[in-house]
Amino acid sequence: MNAAGDEARHIHFYSEEIPDLVARCATGSPWHTFLDAGCGDGCLLYALGKQDLLRGKEAYAIDLSPTRVERVRELGLGVQCMVGDVCDMRGIGDGTIDLLVTTQVIEHVVDDEKMVQEMSRVLRSGGSFYLNTVFKKWFAWYYHRCNGKWVIEPSHLREYTRDSQLLDLLGEYGLEVTETRKVPARYSILDFILHRTGASGRAYENRLLALLRRIKIPIFGYYNWEMTGRRR
Question: What is the pTM of this model?
Fold first, then answer.
């Protein structure tokens, strides 16, 4: 994630599964340069590597956490890794990225407009992007509190409640959304157990744990909001 302290609270599991919309982007229009903005432990990069989708590509990964960036390096995927802020990706040149992916990051940053502006800056004209984040209905409830509000995760600085809050912002910076979907959010029972036993902050490559992690319960009023698009 993009918040440096998140490695103390989140568990990442390595698997070969790639979200459908990401897979569609990665196997659709031709691309050469790839950026994972807010890469965390590199779980998506790991899956792309396992599916042989990074072969012959120029891939970059950026995250605020040095610990997590080092974990990505240790995967041995040949990804160019950098410690940095997705709101100020000065290590990435203007219009150099063909495909940008950012997963569960924008809700953590201080200024979502700056992040969107940076996404637009680094993407080439016609370049593709995939973004997902949290969407909350007015009646949503979860047991965490932040700034006097119920939140699904206490490190979230925002949780979108209307499509226009994000879609209008993307459009303002030339990022045209071509597909969007919302899937009810579910919480892994295994994640809760591992948090309680002090296992947070480590990345796992374990098939049994990955299978157990699929046992999930719904979170009332929360959705995983995915979208794909291109830079005009």
Answer: 0.87
